[in-house]
Sequence to fold (346 residues):
Amino acid sequence: MEKKELNWAELGFQYRKTDYRFSASHVDGKWLEGNLVESEIIPIHEGAPALHYAQQCFEGMKAQTAPDGRVLLFRPQLNSERLNEAASRLLMPEVPHEMFMSAVEEVVRANYAWIPPFGSGASLYIRPLLIGVGENLGLRPARSFEFRVFVSPVGPYYQSAGLAVIALAVSEMDRAAPNGTGNFKVGANYAGGLLATRRAQALGADEALYLDARERRFIDEAGSANIIISMSGDRFVTPLSEAVLPSITRRSLMLLAEDKLKLKTESRPIDLRKELGEFEEIAACGTAAVLSPVGKIWFDDQWHSFYDNGESVGPVMQELYNLLVGIQKGELDDPYGWIHEISIQD
Ligand code: PLP
Ligand code: COI
Fold:
């Protein structure tokens, strides 16, 4: 099967229209059978709760090409579960796991020509979304919903290619309240972060870093990724917070740090100012961000840098990146059963 003629290595993290997407409707309390469609446009009622009250949730996944040409997903069961947790939180119908999986597989298969080849550094980003549609005005749940899955070939999320060092700036704004929706992947968490990201970028950072909204002491997460930290004494920590997204990448990296690097891992509140001196390496992680080492963080009106003065990638994050990406791309054994192969022939 032919691939598109794209300069794969030059791709950034942008939307690029592919040939097919999956669409299914939930009407009168049940899911109708979905199908592949060609149009990237969703006709939507002007009163739709997704537009006014952000009754919307989404997921982010990637398909990768292995050296032998197999097409691989990474822990898709967890995306399916997380989408349904968000759906329930926003009073939307759950998407049955079989429907989620067959939609994702069908869209990837139908857009085979758009899956970046092995070695290109790019991957096929998969964006499932669930939205409340139909006529409405008052604050109540929608009566109809659409589940859609589209894909786009993408390169690195942050500007610089490969495993480049990024910078974060602590935001004076909060991302999520302790008992709010910060731990769900819902669009409502992101609109408020646009300004925080812009301000972070104005300071020369790539992204905002949020502290906990209750005390503004503990690290929560970055605007589009969780945080992992290698600390002195072979410790490897990640913030425990009720307001951060339960990142699938972070959960995987914590296990790799413990299992392969034999580090003492811990999820606990991390007091930025108090513990900073013990940080050896720090990174942001997520599906889009993969593992992006953080060279420096702006807070209290100055830059604080980490490994090698923030100039290069430290050994712990480099090794974790190699392990994670190696498993995701099928170059390394997967002892954990994380990889899900999509059969391309079906
Ligand atoms: N945190 C936020 C706010 C995100 O948007 C994402 C992206 O999905 C993540 C963390 C990382 O989660 P995952 O590793 O499951 O992609
Ligand atoms: C992802 O990493 O999949 C996300 O959804 C983050 C998004 C801001 C691009």
The chain has a mean pLDDT of 96. The chain has two domains: 8-154, 166-328. Residues 59 and 128 are 5 Å apart (CA to CA). Helices lie at 49-52, 76-89, 97-110, 188-191, 193-202, 248-259, 272-275, 315-328.
